[in-house]
Amino acid sequence: MFIQKLSFLLWTIWKGRNVVLFQNENFNPIACIIKAKRACAEWRIRNCLSVDDYCTGRAFGPVSKNKIVQWEPPPTGRVKINFDGSVLHTSAARGYIICDWRGTILRAGSHQYGCASVIMAEARALRDGLQAATVAGYKDIIVEGDNQMIINALLGTISTPWQISNALKDVRFLLKSSD
Fold first, then answer.
1. What is the pTM of this model?
2. Considering its fold, how many domains does the chain have in total?
3. Which of 28, 59, 93, 178 could join 53 in a cystine, given CB atoms 3.0 to 4.6 angstroms apart?
4. Is residue 176 classed as helix, strand or coil in its secondary structure?
5. Which domain does 144 fall in, by range?
6. How far is CA 170 from each of CA 15, 54, 87, rounded to the nearest angstrom?
7. C-alpha span between 155 and 143 (Å, rounded)
């Protein structure tokens, strides 16, 4: 676990160095440590490491071989929406792309939201992608994203977080209307 924390700290120091050099800002060591801790915590959360595994030290066992991840097209006749959201400093953004079974890009969109959370940006990306697909008349839609909380909320395995309840209400409506 020490190696992971050290890696995030070194990366954050490097990014802080770049800000000092290229944007003429002052280096704040305390803020650097806090950013590194947040990045490390987010990495653990996004990689679905359970608290039990983390506390027992089992979460950071031997590293497995790298896995190549690539986009898979939907079955013939269907379209796929890939969506994602991100936050850099206090600025949130979202994006989606709609492709057919041949890999042809049918629609794409992105938008900057200003101050919002990652979960909010992800939910809006999903909603906006579905809205673009239904407006374009696509009916047989597959949705793919990497935010486990949104996926679980849509599947009903967790209760919907209040921050994204309206966006997911729209998503459920759009999914029903595309049937």
1. 0.60
2. 2
3. 59
4. helix
5. 79-177
6. 38, 36, 22
7. 13
